[in-house]
Amino acid sequence: MPSANHSVYEAHPVRVAAAVEEAAHKVGEATEQENCKAVAREGAAVFRPGARGSSMNARSNGPSQRAWDTARQSREQRLAAAARYARGKLVSHEDATKLLEAVVRAGDRVCLEGDNQKQADFLAARLAEVDPAVVKGLHIVQSGVVLAEHLDLFEAGIAKRLDFSYSGPQGAAIARALKAGKIELGAVHTYLELFSRYFVDLTPHVALTVARCADREGNLYMGPNTEDSPVVIEATAFKQGIVIAQVNELVDKVPRVDVPGDRVDFVVAAPSNFYVEPLFTRDPAQITETQILSAMLAIKGIYEPYGVKRLNHGIGFNTAAIELILPTYAERLGLKGRIATHFALNPHPTLIPAIESGWVEQVHSFGSEVGMDDYMRARPDIFFTGRDGSMASNRMYCQSAGLYATDLFIGSTLQIDLAGNSSTFTKDRIAGFGGAPNMGSDPRGRRHASDAWLKAGREAAGETTSLPRGRKLVVQIVETFGEKLSPTFVENLDSIELAKSLDLALPPVMIYGDDVSHIVTEEGIANLLLCRTPAEREQAIRGVAGYTDVGRARDARAVEDLRARKVIQRPEDLGIDPLDANRSLLAARSIKELMRWSGNLYDPPRKFRNW
Amino acid sequence: MENLKLRFTTRGPIPGTARSTIVGVVASGNLEVLLERVLDQNECAVEIATPVRGYDDVWKAVVADFVERASPGGMRISINDGGARPDTVALRLMQGVRTMEAGDE
Amino acid sequence: MSETGRPFAASASWFLSTARERLAKLLDAGSFTEFVPPSERVQSPHLALFDLPAAFDDGMIVGCGRLGGKSVLVAAQEGQFMGGTFAEVSGAKLLGLIRAARDDEKLPRTILLLLDSGGVRLQEANAGELAVAEVMRAIVEARAAGVAVIALVGGRAGAFGGAGLTAATCSAIVISEQGRTGVTGPEVIETNKGVEEFDSRDKALVWSVTGGRTRRLIGGADAYAEDTVASFREATLALMGKARPFDLATLRAELARLAGRVGRLGGCDSAVAMWSALGVADPRATADMDDPAFVALVADVKGAGDDAR
Q1: In this predicted model, what pLDDT tens digit does every residue of C244-275 receive, in sequence order?
Q2: Residue C15 contacts A, CB cutoff 8 Å
Q3: In this predicted structure, what is the pLDDT of residue A498?
Q4: Boundaries of each CoA carboxyltransferase N-terminal domain copy (chain C) (predicted)?
Q5: Interhelix angle for A289-298 vs B86-102, to 10°?
Q6: C-chain residues within 8 Å CB-CB of A334?
Q7: For residue A16, what are the CA distances in angstroms to A57, A73, A80, A534, C207?
Q8: Domains of chain A by range and CATH?
């Protein structure tokens, strides 16, 4: 193709349009020209046919006749089509739907950010408005399918295929759409896995991102909500895709450049601020005595003996209870400085009392949390902050940190089977797993030692090995019964049934049983590292499954044997009286008390303010 | 509503002199337990009223374990259940016994 | 327990306590005697029809005890049971207590009402509505007979519907930040008038309109307590023996007070506007300031202290 394209690449969209036309004219034969346009339109890398078959043969040892920049040509065509709606990179919000119709092509892979926290909600609504006769069959590749508009795309036929990580509130709607044949499901990934595939076989053609503000060059400031954006944009922009950003406001100078402007093609100032879900706010007033008991067990039975310093917590009330009894219960045990000092963790408001009491040295975060901005800005010793002072998050980095640089993951789940496999899918909900499968797995590529890791490794290996090798602590903390008295412990995971009914190649499992080291319930702790046979493992699980069918079907004698070997530890074995598990142990008993702990720097979301 | 009546013979009475006590409240996922020292010292009767059907076996197991552990002789125990989970039931029963042992309410 | 630096009182929260826990710590230790206790099993005969569990006290605890050595009658609603609602049994227990005080001069001359109620129980609505009407009349008659009736509001259910009306007939109201009073509850307003009119899930909005700080600032409550049982006890003790005689002069003064409030605040369209009109220097900081700062603020606000009841 004409070398003129190299200069065109960097140019202004309006000039690009002219250049593309010129380049097209230079292609001699009409048939070739049509082919070239068609190829570019599809955005697929295919060989450009030679003018004559004979000449191909004649040049078989020379430079290839293939066109090497079809994706770039496609990009230029799209930019040209969009040029009439843009002044520089700026597009009015009123033209956003037309802009999307100009740059998104049928069958494109589209990332509509779209994670579990921040939402490009304005662009999502505009994409749902495009003409489905023109823009159709999109392949959505994004970590979070959270908004109703995300599902509308599939209902309208605008999108067809889906690869994602987390669905949260839309879990039931996704299951319905799957059963109705509206969605072709690729896979339910972990975050790291989906981000990795952005660079291998799920590279987006178009990324619709979201930022707090932008300047005229397209430099984006995302503040604490940087989250997935850097990885999404890098994959899209460097593979000739189009990046469009929804922003709250346009400014002359952004406080900090989270994404450089030369990776951003269009900026739309949305009429209202983007939505952020306060996903990590847990009201201490809702923490139950049972959850406090489980939290005491986890600290006394796991954090203390292993000396767990580097860790990740899930987002449930059980782990919120752990965070809230660090400055009280764990302090009484004399564990300050010896456990829970370094976190890969979102800025959980329930961690504030532990931070303020000097427990926590460092926290790196996947994303932000609504209302925590000012608090984090005032605690740069604890949080990662930019030169502008505001916190900086990055989901890909933090997931890697959680995978390789922590010794313990602890989180909850909805179902656990007799082998310890867990899932949050039920028969009618496809919830997605988010980051739990990364954090909740033993990384076999790890090569640095720590006391906690080595102790777990010794327990797992028993007497059988001479080669020291570590093991990650992967802890499931659950109550034996969940909402509406549904049992947490089951013979078979619902997700296996679901996979059959939907003909999925891979049954969705959040954490595989062989990765789980401990299960904590109000009945006690099962240490699966110490189990030597599948039968032992099954009885260890039954032994902490309480009054569920699975629990009541235990072999009482086998369970007592396991207890004698400390494979199972009851509260009384750890010196914990269940009647001591009461709310006075919580360092903060309400959202307001969290705000007080923070010196009023934490600004709770309105829906949590009962004052 | 489902009503269950269970009777047990215990190893002996629970200590203390309190005549009766009530713990917990009837709310979603919670229950109230009324304990009255009105039976012979080796007897325990438990009456349960619950809107949740089909959990008879679980109730029997939870209460039997409690009786084995606490030996609540002399107690007439009456439960109004709001759909509590077994762990909450066990906790309230133990809280009730502790209150009875502590003396007058 | 090491709790140095804990930036708030560690004693029992009123909001989070059950009605029985509140009574046990509000009154002098061990002084409470319950009338018609749970062991008598006087519970709702209606709830089983709806496949709903009953409570042995029907969510209403009545009795007598001592506060700072002085004898009092008490009634406490359990807000967690059916929203603390007025129903046939719970209403009758409350009514019986107040009428007894009205009719028998030998009984304590102070009644404490620990309100925690969304109003009338829907499953027993006729009996509940009647109970509210009879309770209001009985309170007025008891006050006329020289009984002081003090409402304490700080529970999960607040004091809405019939409980809101009941509170308004009392001699005095003690309220905490978490407490709310009103007639029509936020969810009902949203259902009938739309989310644009009132978003019941916007808790900050709900509390700014109905919550304890607003009520105290505009004179809708007479005393402000921190969210601890100890603070409610202290605030109630301070009100004991202070009730004005319930006569024509008091009623006239009350009407004048209400007319003045409408004149000062009737044009405001938000809580912040009201606080501003009352002369609060930084009205937006009012919700988030700590309790001592708020108490200091109230002392300076004209209108908060002009109670005439």
Answers
A1: 889 999 999 999 999 999 998 999 999 999 99
A2: yes
A3: 86
A4: 1-248
A5: 90
A6: none
A7: 35, 10, 6, 65, 57
A8: 5-63 (no CATH), 89-276 (3.40.1080.10), 284-597 (3.40.1080.10)
Dihedral angle, C-alpha A591, A596, A602, A605, nearest 10 °: 30
User: Which residue of B61, B94, B98 is in closest CB contact with A552?
Assistant: B61
pLDDT digits (tens, 9 = 90+) for A514-569: 999 999 999 999 999 999 999 999 999 999 999 999 999 999 999 999 999 999 99
B2 close to C (CB below 8 A): no
ipTM comes to: 0.94
Distance CA A201, CA A187 (A): 13
CATH class, range C19-300: alpha beta
- Residue among C8, C13, C207 minimizing CB distance to A611: C207
CB neighbour list of residue A555: distance below 8 Å, 6 or more residues apart: A539, A542
Q: How many CB pairs under 8 A join B and C?
A: 48
Q: Is B94 on the interface with C (CB under 8 A)?
A: no
User: Are A449 and A469 contacting, i.e. CB atoms less than 8 angstroms apart?
Assistant: no
B80 and C54: CB-CB below 8 Å? Answer: yes
DSSP letters spanning C151-220: EEE-STT-B-THHHHHHHTSSEEEEETT-BB-SS-HHHHHHHH-TTT--TT-HHHHHHHHBHHHHHHTTS
Question: Which chain C residue is nearest to residue A597, measuring alpha carbons?
Answer: C7
pLDDT value at position C307?
66
Please say whether the beta carbons of B52 and B28 come within 8 A. Answer: no
User: Hey, is the C-beta of A479 within 8 angstroms of any chain B C-beta?
Assistant: yes
- List the domain boundaries for chain C: 19-300
Instruction: List the single residue in A with minimal CA-CA distance to B29.
Output: A484
Non-local CB neighbours of C41 within 8 Å, separated by 6+ positions: B78, C56
State phi, psi for A377 to the nearest 5 degrees: -60, -35
Q: Do C203 and A606 touch (CB under 8 A)?
A: yes
Query: Within a 10 A sphere around the Cβ of A579, how many other Cβ atoms?
Result: 13
What chain B holds in terms of domains, given with CATH numbers, is 2-102 (3.30.230)
Reported as a pLDDT band with limits 50, 70 and 90, residue A602 is very high
**Residue ranges, chain B, pLDDT below 70:** 103-105
CA angle A269, A270, A276 (to 5 degrees): 120
The conformational region for residue B13 under phi > 0 = left, psi -120 to 50 = alpha, else beta, is beta
Find tokens 């018609």 and name the residue. Answer: C36
Q: Is A589 on the interface with C (CB under 8 A)?
A: yes
Rounded to the nearest angstrom, the minimum Cα separation between A611 and chain C is: 5
Q: Give the one of A481, A523, A579 whose C-beta lies nearest to B85's C-beta.
A: A481
CB pair distance less than 8 Å for C55 and B36: no
pLDDT at position A55 is 47
When pLDDT is cut at 50, 70 and 90, the band that residue A434 belongs to is confident
Question: 């969290």: which residue's tokens?
Answer: A594
Interface check for B87 against chain A (CB to CB < 8 A): the answer is yes
Residue of A nearest to C14 (CA): A589
Confidence (pLDDT) at A213: 98
pLDDT digits (tens, 9 = 90+) for C142-187: 999 999 999 999 999 999 999 999 999 999 999 999 999 999 999 9
> In this complex, which chains have at least 3 CB pairs below 8 Å with chain A?
B, C
In angstroms, the separation between the Cα of residue A508 and the nearest Cα of chain B is 28
Q: What is the pLDDT of residue B103?
A: 64
pLDDT bucket at A442, cuts 50 / 70 / 90 = very high
* Alpha carbon of B48: minimum distance to chain C alpha carbons (Å): 11
Question: Which chain C residues are closer than 8 Å to B99 by Cβ?
Answer: none
Please tell me what DSSP assigns to residue A487: B
B52 touches chain C (CB under 8 A): no
State how far residue B64 is from chain C, nearest Cα, in angstroms. Answer: 23
- Please name every residue paired with B37 in a beta bridge, in sequence order, or none if there are none: B75
